[in-house]
Hints:
2 copies of one chain form a homodimer.
Chain A: E1 3-8, E2 23-27, H1 32-41, E3 46-49, H2 53-57, E4 65-70, E5 73-74, H3 89-92, E6 96-100, H4 104-110, E7 116-120, H5 125-135, E8 139-143, H6 152-167, E9 171-172, H7 176-188, H8 192-196, H9 200-207, H10 214-217, E10 225-230, E11 233-238
Parallel strand pairs in A: 1-8, 1-9, 2-7, 2-8, 3-6, 4-6
Antiparallel strand pairs in A: 4-5, 7-10, 10-11
Helix pairs in contact in A: 5-6, 6-7
Amino acid sequence: MNHQIEVCFSPAVFEDFFRPELNVVVVDVLRATSSICTAFINGAEKLIPIGNVEELKGFVNMGHVLAGERNGYTLDFVDFGNSPFNFTRDKVENKTVIYSTTNGTRAIQMASRCRNVIVGSFLNISSVCNWLDSQEEDVLVLCAGWKNRFSLEDTLLAGAICEKLVETGHFSTICDSAISAIDLWQLAKSDLMKTVEKCAQRHRLKQKGLDDVLEYCFTPDITDIIPVYGNGVLKPMIF
Amino acid sequence: MNHQIEVCFSPAVFEDFFRPELNVVVVDVLRATSSICTAFINGAEKLIPIGNVEELKGFVNMGHVLAGERNGYTLDFVDFGNSPFNFTRDKVENKTVIYSTTNGTRAIQMASRCRNVIVGSFLNISSVCNWLDSQEEDVLVLCAGWKNRFSLEDTLLAGAICEKLVETGHFSTICDSAISAIDLWQLAKSDLMKTVEKCAQRHRLKQKGLDDVLEYCFTPDITDIIPVYGNGVLKPMIF
Lengths: 239, 239
């Protein structure tokens, strides 16, 4: 058994990686996929990712929890913004959360033509890798990036996932972006916060006073829950 | 004086980096930009990059030298393919070369709305960096990649260019792709051929028996010539 693992650095080039049989892990470390995992840790029943702000507005006053941001700023008609610290148990337990972000939710929707789409973060990385290993299919890590650009923090998580899968002996790669993600992860992992300090998104968040989530978003294995996407909805799976 | 340097990993996301005032260096190490530099080393008068195979066909029997490939295979109506070793003095001296490749020529044309567009390779790297430093403008390294995908060999050259420009003290970067390109270059440079061995394009070339150019394409500073793009034509500039 030898399956391929590839990494796509930007939703803008997803079509060049697309194959219907792929298992796709969407990563958006700062902050969408960390927030989605946190919502399920705190008992959310389901989460509906919405790409479009206008579409999100259609869910106002329907009894759901609304969360969303554009360019780091909380939308004015939602319950709260994009920080994982907002998705607290008292807000989301047993609720349906409708959620839209600049980059992450679009990437999740984009991948929906593939075999399986799951949400990855450092918070659930081992569970994600164990499940992918159990599926015996090729894997694509889809980085949400930032407005189509390469994002270092997503690349580090992609590299960490690739390293774990290659270590199983069941996966290998000939994909330059996967090889480079592994190299960048191995270079960074002994002092991760020093590397995170270099990330453009870390500076964007700091400018807006939103960088309190950094350590949390890079903490591995807080949960076993894997958010799985199907029919437009994310639901929690424990593996 | 502090100018920004950024790296764009794929022509597919060029629009997200575009600013008219940029100086753009296009890199396609294996093999287009190495071949273009070689054409001028061997005395070509000018070189016209053509994105489209049909358009290239229109130049047949017009007295020019035609060169081109698609997916590594030489087109059947041209004088020769995409190896820099084809652009010999007896073929190109004082000639106009019409040239089309899978990725490289498209990237050059795409960048033409920017202030200046030059062609970079390891062969002319110091001259390229000295010229960029003299221009006192922000710089974008545009990697031609492979069919919109990230390419490790182009990234290594981008990292080497960024490292040199940052070392001048006149450039800095907050661009995640530039930061990562520098990291990957610094990781690779002490044993460059070992890293090149990992590149997907190196495997593609090997399968087609076209990998004899590897050492040549990674040899720094064979020439001072910088190919400059303007009005659809590349001409040699010595700096």
